[in-house]
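User: Here's a structure from my thesis project, written as structure tokens. My advisor, Dr. K., wants to see whether a designed sequence matches the one we expressed. Can you design one independently, without my sequence as a hint?
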């Protein structure tokens, strides 16, 4: 059964939020019936795109996002209707593959949402497979790490965090709050391929912020082991996204998120450096130095890692504010390569403070930007109606 609300026609003493919740309940009920829910937004104030339609999958996983975005439309007086569009496509149906292509859109028609329902459904299934936790548990502020030690520090900070009950590739832990306002940490492993895989799937959840908390090789004389590096830009030598986002496209960290990270580091008196981070897919780049060193010098990079540019580039593609706070674990140009014994000592001494700065920054995002971080720099000229916060 169709459900519709004309918010412009509601009596003045009516609570729009209650009607938004009714619409979201209807979306979930349609999904439970085995259909894709279709949302139609009629915006009489729009001359070029007054009516937009789009389908969804697993709406409970993005309930918080739907309530917030539909609430914005309601405040302008939109007419919003919900209906069942078509039966859900099973994962073993060859038709599923045909509807996963992100490029197969009618460019003449503005989109309602970034993803088709088949893409949403498959990504959330894979997200549960990789992280060992259902997507409905994911919070809208996300930390990525490469190390179990950061997951340990996360669980110590948030003792009630919920995590996987089995061994998985990218375990996730969730500090849950109402409205998905808490924090999620995912141990994504090492390398740009993993970084792309996880960001492809997390993107459908529309997080408010994604923050990479990793380690890096320091490249400057005046850096010490344990110093922090805040990425302001990225040198993309990972090559993993070149086919879908040319390296000529500038990608930088979210200004507001970086400002909050600086605030936290300054309050603790921590030593840090800002600058370009060189992201490579070659962990042993020191064995073939010429090309890497030429790119490092040309880009004025201050550190080398293997994930932050990939996270930032996919965040740019999918309109997700990102940042990277790295910790210097070695200095290969200065006679301090990463060695096992030294690394273990460094990990024990650095993990708690590093994680705390990152977690506090995301908590400030929640408190200061409840409607989402300002992200005009990653919005496109043909931005979907429900594209970024």
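Assistant: Designed independently from the structure alone:
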């Amino acid at each position: 059964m169709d459900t519709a609300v004309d918010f412009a026609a509601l009596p003045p003493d009516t609570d729009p939020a209650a009607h938004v919740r009714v619409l979201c309940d209807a979306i979930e009920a349609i999904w439970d019936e085995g259909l894709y829910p279709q949302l139609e937004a009629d915006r009489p104030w729009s001359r070029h795109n007054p009516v937009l339609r789009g389908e969804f999958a697993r709406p409970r996983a993005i309930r918080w996002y739907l309530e917030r975005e539909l609430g914005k439309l309601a405040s302008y007086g939109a007419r919003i209707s919900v209906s069942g569009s078509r039966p859900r496509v099973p994962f073993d149906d060859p038709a599923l593959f045909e509807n996963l292509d992100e490029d197969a859109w009618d460019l003449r028609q503005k989109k309602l949402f970034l993803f088709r329902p088949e893409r949403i459904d498959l990504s959330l299934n894979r997200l549960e497979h990789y992280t060992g936790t259902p997507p409905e548990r994911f919070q809208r502020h996300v930390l990525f790490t490469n190390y179990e030690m950061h997951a340990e520090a996360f669980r110590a900070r948030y003792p009630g965090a919920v995590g996987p009950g089995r061994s998985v590739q990218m375990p996730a832990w969730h500090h849950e709050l109402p409205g998905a306002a808490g924090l999620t940490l995912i141990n994504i492993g090492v390398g740009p391929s993993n970084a792309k895989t996880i960001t492809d799937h997390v993107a459908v959840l529309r997080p408010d912020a994604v923050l990479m908390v990793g380690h890096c090789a320091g490249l400057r004389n005046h850096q010490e082991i344990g110093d922090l590096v805040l990425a302001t830009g990225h040198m993309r030598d990972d090559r993993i996204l070149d086919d879908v986002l040319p390296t000529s496209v500038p990608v930088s960290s979210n200004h507001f998120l970086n400002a909050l990270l600086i605030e936290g580091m300054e309050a603790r008196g921590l030593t840090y450096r800002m600058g370009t981070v060189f992201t490579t897919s070659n962990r042993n780049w020191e064995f073939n130095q010429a090309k890497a060193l030429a790119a490092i010098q040309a880009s004025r990079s201050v550190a080398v890692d293997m994930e932050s540019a990939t996270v930032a580039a996919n965040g740019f593609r999918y309109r997700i504010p990102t940042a990277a706070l790295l910790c210097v674990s070695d200095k290969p140009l200065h006679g301090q390569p990463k060695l096992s014994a030294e690394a273990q000592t460094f990990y024990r001494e650095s993990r708690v403070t590093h994680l705390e700065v990152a977690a506090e920054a995301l908590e400030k995002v929640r408190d200061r930007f409840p409607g989402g971080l300002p992200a005009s720099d990653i919005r496109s000229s043909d931005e979907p109606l429900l594209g970024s916060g």
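When you compare it with your expressed construct, this may help: Residues 89 and 161 are 34 Å apart (CA to CA).
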